[in-house]
TrEMBL record:
Placement of sequence motif Histidine triad motif: 101-105
Domain HIT: 10-117
Organism: Streptomyces lanatus
UniProt-listed InterPro entries: Histidine_triad_HIT, HIT-like, HIT-like_sf
SUPFAM superfamilies: HIT-like (SSF54197)
Name recorded for this polypeptide: Histidine triad nucleotide-binding protein
PROSITE patterns recorded: HIT_2 (PS51084)
């Protein structure tokens, strides 16, 4: 929850410029940067600049901002000339979420299997 920057949040620190990241796109409301441990040739994280713990909390509090994140995910895919790509919102530790600041993973540039692991 909140929308306020969290002192202990890695992605709030990236937004503030206190932790370096390879930023590929930035808008008034979002930042997109390369994942430090890429799982595909394109692996970019798109985050809202304001802090919400997960995608659903973001969408409930600020639906227009959630839409900004999705639009930026497509813009990232377009910049990397991806015809197909996957957008993932891990939600909860059991699903693999490790950073509790809402983020879209944009993955592409290789074949993808379904169902995911
Ligand atoms: P989650 O597991 O929460 O869905 O995704 C968090 C992602 O953040 C992981 O894919 C992880 O590799 C990435 N990550 C963790 N620490 C850093 C960092 O300091 N910089 C960047 N660019 N990515 C990070
Ligand atoms: Zn945060």
């Amino acid at each position: 929850m909140s929308g306020e920057p969290q002192d202990d949040c890695l992605f709030c620190k990236i937004v503030a410029g206190h932790v370096p990241a390879t930023i590929v796109r930035e808008t008034d409301t979002t930042v997109a940067f390369r994942d430090i441990n890429p799982q595909a040739p394109t692996h970019v994280l798109v985050i809202p600049k304001t802090h919400y713990k997960d995608a659903a909390t973001l969408a409930t509090a600020e639906p227009a901002l959630a839409a900004d994140v999705l639009r930026e995910a497509k813009a990232v895919a377009d910049e990397d000339k991806l015809e197909s790509y996957r957008i993932v919102f891990n939600t909860g530790a059991g699903a693999g979420q490790t950073v509790f600041h809402a983020h879209a993973h944009v993955l592409g540039g290789r074949g993808m299997q379904w169902p995911p692991g």
